[in-house]
Amino acid sequence: MNPTYLIYTAIVLVAIGTALVLTRKSLLFILIGIELILNAVNLNLVAFNHLYPQNVNGQTTTLFIMAIAICETACGVAIMIQVARQYKTITPSSIQDLKEQA
Amino acid sequence: MIQFVYYFFIFLTLASAFALLFVRQILYAVLLLLVVMLSVAGLFILMQAELSGVSQILIYAGGVAVLFIFGIMLSDKKGFSFTKVAYTQIFSGMGIALVLGSLLLYATQVVKKLPTEVKVKNDVQKLSFELLSDFALPFEVTGILLLSIFIGVAFIAGKTNHTQS
Amino acid sequence: MSQSFILVSLICCLPFAGMLMNLWLKKYVAYISTLVLFIINILVFFFISQHETQIETSLIWFKLQNFTIDFNYYINQDSILLLPVVSIISFLVHVFSIGYMAHEKSLSRYFNGLLFFTASMLLFVCSGNLIVIFLAWECLGLASYLLIGFYREKTEAGFASLKAMLLNRLSDLLLLSAFILMFAYYQSFNLNEIIDSQQTLPQLVGWMLLLGVLAKSAQFPLMNWLPSAMTGPSPVSALIHAATMVIAGVYLMIRLSPILPLSVLHGLTTIGSLTAFLGALAATQQFDVKKILAYSTISQLGLIMAAVGIASPQAAILHMVSHAFFKAGLFLGVGALIHYLKDNRVNRETNAQDIRNLGALYKSYPYTFYTILIFSLALCGIPFTSGFLSKEYLLTQAWNSTNSLSIFYFVFIILTSTITVIYTTRLIVYTFFNKRKENFNSAASEKKRVFLFPLIVLSIASFWWIININPFHADFYFFSKTKFITPVWLTIGSTLFIPILFFFAFRYFNSREISNSPNRLLLQGFALDDLQQKLIVQPTLLIGNLLLSIEKKWIDGFIHAMAFATVLFSHIISFLDYWLVDGFVRMTYKASYTLGGWVRVSRSGYVQHYLFWFLFTAVLFIIWVLF
Q: What number is the ipTM of this complex?
């Protein structure tokens, strides 16, 4: 049970999450990507906590991150629902309001 | 045996995460995410972090997955069929993800060699002491954060659009 | 303020009130004007009956620091005599005009012109301030100009009015200069003070005055506007160009005669005699009835002017008064005749004013004939007329005068009178006697009573009784009783000579056809038009063209050069402005725009693009940390 593999796994998860966030045409996929990245972080923390068990800071931080992740997801979903109401779509590439008005 | 379970969970995590990249239906994506969460929870338990693993199962499987499914139902449902999600900026996105991943992997090779095998005792008691002593303030702040986020989310999601009506 | 001052002011201002009333009672213009003149007549007679010749009151007109210019009147015996003449003739002309102008358009223009003229003339007669006199003088000129050009659809009327105006300007210039020099000499514009100072004018100013009144009084070198002025309506000719306005110049000389230097008086006599003789000569060759009368007027005015020159203003005034009545009468009579004839023409092309087309009209128009005859006799100076007495007065003054030129003048009076008899007889004979021409319908009648009234009043005023109850004694009622004795041989001579001359002239003209080959020089009034054209108009044009070419070449050239330089300079400035100042500004904004454009490429508005750049930066950061 070599925890180093967990670190590699976390890195792969981060890359996949990043790819999801950047390439998929749906707000839900973006949220999923973000969840993957957060999970990767948790995984990383747990792995390091396993490697250095003198204190439990890694696990504690994992708990906090989970709490904040659920908050973030809740917010994200709420905003997504509102966006869906406003624009009749949740595809971020068809929403261009951040650009200046032509 | 336990070694096998460990590699199995790693494989499951990576495979379902990888599948996420190619799946087109949002509902399947959520289910795949759920698989990732659960296998990560398994990895946590294998890493002697039982509290985190249980929390992972409770929060992610019980909370986030349900939240996502509600989000799908409230936003993307058209009749009984779900839209298929297309791709955008594939090359730049995949490229940057690839570069990021390879850079991080390279970084793990650069830093000093990590120990490969450690004997650790399961110490949930120590964790709870830490949480209620050193981390008491963040703990309380997180509680307040959660409360305010729930109120805020209810407010945001409940707001009807006046310009449409 | 004395009563007389108010009265005179009222007399002078009433015509303006009439003009104002004419503005909103356009239908009754003629009657209102006539009524106003009637009221003025009453006021004038009331004023005269008061026998107040000295009006002390004066109004302060305006002040220049310490110097005050007063508005005052200078009434002496001459003004007292002239006032009723002006007002009566003006009134009669108004009455006549009611009939004469009945079918004309723009009646209000005509009657306002007449009223304006009357006001100016009254003011001119009464005023005692050189500025006001000059103002009234110019107003007279303006009224004359407007009324000569009354028939504005006629080209020659326009030219005639222009000619009158321009010739008058020529001498008005001198008159104005003379007035200004008089002010410099006497330090006053007040006529009372000037006359009372007893100082003789400098020679130069005197001569300028003399030349200044030449045009208005139609004297020799500048007389040719008067025959042209006959294109105006006949009543206008009667009022302005025979009876009143043309004597304004003489009247001014009479007023100033106490201070005129001797050489100017001699000049007056010479010019007057010459004008009298030449005018009479020109009158013998004219065919146009009104032009005969115009030259006759010039000739008589010459006599009057010359009388001023031999220091006998009384004689001048006397002849002025009698001449005003019978000459106005002649013009009105001829005007009435022309008016009747115009309506009865057989051929519309016939010129009713040409005596070659007239003849044997005395039966058709008896009243007109008799009145014209009386006026003509008065003009000739037949005994029992006013003309006889006033000419006798002239002759007596010339004979008794100690002036060195008086004998010369005496001879010229006799010569002029002789020629006067000849042209007057010619006019009468070829108009009313001689052979009948079939140019006009015989069944004509004198329908208009409105013509008769002025003619009869004027013919009554042409007899001896307006001068003296004794038909052979020329001492005027109103003159202060000086010892006035006419040599007996003079009275007897003229009493016999003129009727006999008249008789023979009558026989001579009645027995033959009118001569159709007149002397061209006399017909054209001594070619004064050409002379003025050569002497005044052409040099003026020459100088004008010279100045024009200078203006065009040098002044305009300079201005053009300036303009070109300015434009060139502005072009350079604008070039610099465009490429340097604006260029800098443009460079700045274009640079920022381009830079912004480059930066803006990343700003697509898509969330995921921002995320991409964020991660790109993160990657860069990691690379920086790692390597």
A: 0.89
